[in-house]
Amino acid sequence: MRAALNRWRRRLWRWLFFRMLFAERDPASGALRAASRIAPSTCIEGEAGLQLADHVFIGQFNFLEASAGLRLGEGVQITNFCSLVTHSSQRAQRLLGRAYVGWSGDKPGFKRAPIEIGPYCFIGPHSLIEAGSRLGKGVLVCAYAQVRGEVPDFAIVAGQPAQVVGDVRAGDARWLDTHPECRAHYEAWAGALR
């Protein structure tokens, strides 16, 4: 009896709190993104600064701070436990100490810059994308990576801070050889493989 109640409780909890449904609205434009999904456990601060394309997937327990602008291109996948932050106050807080809260005007050391993630990027679990980062199309961010700055198209990045460790097109070519029926779909967003 107890096991049955526990199973029922878990199913109810998943249905009520962790259920992902298709169709989100782009907070910036109000446009319907019928094929996008955002998990209910994801926290979005500064939602008005979020620009959301369609076919975006944002998994469970992420933190998106979009006050300075966060643009997610078509097909972006953000797995679980990721943080994307468009500002950083840690240096300003250290410099100003207790004066940080009452400081008027620009705070020395405060960083505020938009993040742009190109189409069909994949953000691995427990990753951090810092303010001012720009990821090109098709980028794969490995788990636990700390990304700052520019990341070229199709790069595989890993580490803290993240470094380019490969190119996704090598693996994509092998998959396309195995599944040639996907080539036209792939080339529609990525272009022809060289």
Question: How would you describe this structure to a colleague?
Answer:
It is a single chain. The mean pLDDT is 92. Helix content is 22%, strand content 27%. It starts with a helix and ends with a helix. The protein is of the alpha/beta class. It is globular, with a radius of gyration of 19 Å. It has helices spanning 2-17, 90-96, 168-178, 183-190; strands at 24-25, 32-33, 37-38, 43-45, 50-52, 57-58, 63-65, 70-72, 77-78, 83-85, 87-88, 111-112, 115-117, 122-123, 128-129, 134-135, 140-141, 146-147, 150-151, 155-158, 163-167.
| Beta fraction | 25-35%
The residue ranges in which pLDDT falls below 50 over 5 or more consecutive positions are: none
> Termini, distance in Å?
61 Å
Give the total of beta strands. 21
Strand order of the largest sheet: 3-6-9-14-17-20-21
List strands and helices in order, with pairings:
Layout: H1 2-17, E1 24-25, E2 32-33, E3 37-38, E4 43-45, E5 50-52, E6 57-58, E7 63-65, E8 70-72, E9 77-78, E10 83-85, E11 87-88, H2 90-96, E12 111-112, E13 115-117, E14 122-123, E15 128-129, E16 134-135, E17 140-141, E18 146-147, E19 150-151, E20 155-158, E21 163-167, H3 168-178, H4 183-190
How would you summarize what this structure contains?
This protein is of the alpha/beta class and 194 residues long. It is built from 4 helices and 21 strands. The longest helix is centred in the N-terminal third of the chain and has 16 residues, at 2-17.
Which key features would you list for this structure?
single chain, 194 residues, alpha/beta, seven-stranded mixed beta sheet, 21 strands, 22% helix
